[in-house]
Design a protein that fits this description.
Distance between the termini: 28 Å
Radius of gyration: 18 Å
Helix content: 55-70%
Number of domains: 1
Largest sheet: 2 strands, antiparallel
Shape: globular
Structural class: mainly alpha
Order of helices and strands: HHHHHHHEHHHE
CATH topology: TorD-like
Number of helices: 10
CATH superfamily: TorD-like
């Protein structure tokens, strides 16, 4: 792998913007009972997310030359459209969440990566779960029992990317030798996790989410996520997947105990 050109790729404002966009995408898909509505409502009149989207949106490198299945153009990376459709109360938000994802895994738009692996490939599903956990563990992350969730949940994967961007920002503050090494580690982990996990299934999930919730909050959340992934691919030099996938939730892998990533 060619070393990253940190003189041109590292920019604190860009890293903060990208981290904010990942966290926003994760928040839109967070369990409604975990305080998502209150946190989103607080952002209605905060310019931070619009500024973050503008920073990334104005980067020529963030525009993917080719979109993969389910992906949306950079012009649709607009958090204001998501916030404009936020339900008016936490009760309404809870109902939309439960109608969309249900009490069990949704068959229409499951928010788990391994649900998009053919159900007959049980070993591949187990291997993928183990690999995702391996990424988390490599950075000293464990799962919390406060909100039990599988490691392949879309929120977990988005939060992990946000965490890596935060680590990259911290790495820039170290001495020269350690700084370059840690920057390489963080950027390589971002590219690998995006390529091997998030990018091949999240846009398909986003497309299904929008299709199942046309005109609603989750429609807008799906569009936002589908625009974020190709922007990140372009920034990290990850090619779009040629794989056309659909959910295959007939036989789910064993759910793990644990949830939100904590260090």
């Amino acid at each position: 792998m060619t070393p990253f050109d940190h003189e041109t790729t590292f920019d604190p404002a860009v890293l903060m913007a990208r981290q904010s966009l990942y966290r926003f995408a994760a928040l839109t898909l967070l369990d409604s009972k975990a305080g998502a509505w209150e946190r989103l409502e607080a952002q209605r009149h905060d310019a931070l997310m619009s500024e973050a989207a503008a920073i990334v949106g104005n980067m020529p490198k963030a525009k993917s030359e080719k979109l993969g299945p389910g992906e949306r153009p950079l012009s649709e990376l607009d958090p204001s459209q998501v916030l404009a459709r936020l339900p008016g109360s936490t009760q309404e938000f809870n109902k939309e969440y439960e109608d969309t994802f249900g009490l069990l895994v949704s068959n229409a738009c499951p928010p788990y990566e391994t649900e998009y692996i053919d159900s007959k490939y049980t070993f591949q599903r187990s291997h993928s779960l183990a690999d995702i956990s391996g990424f988390y563990n490599a950075f000293g992350l464990t799962t919390s029992s406060a909100h039990p969730e599988r490691p392949d949940h879309i929120v977990q994967e988005l939060e992990f990317m946000a965490f890596l961007l935060g680590q990259e920002r911290l790495a820039a503050e170290g001495d020269s030798t350690a700084r370059i090494e840690q920057l390489d580690v963080c950027r390589d982990a971002q590219a690998r996790f995006l390529r091997e996990h998030l990018s091949w299934w999240a846009p398909v999930f986003a497309r299904l989410l929008s299709h199942e919730n046309q005109g609603s909050f989750y429609d807008a959340a799906g569009v936002f996520l589908a625009a974020l992934i190709p922007a990140e691919r372009a920034l990290l030099d990850v090619v779009p997947t040629a794989q056309h996938t659909e959910p295959s939730p007939l036989e789910r892998p064993e759910e793990c105990e644990g949830c939100e990533l904590v260090s």
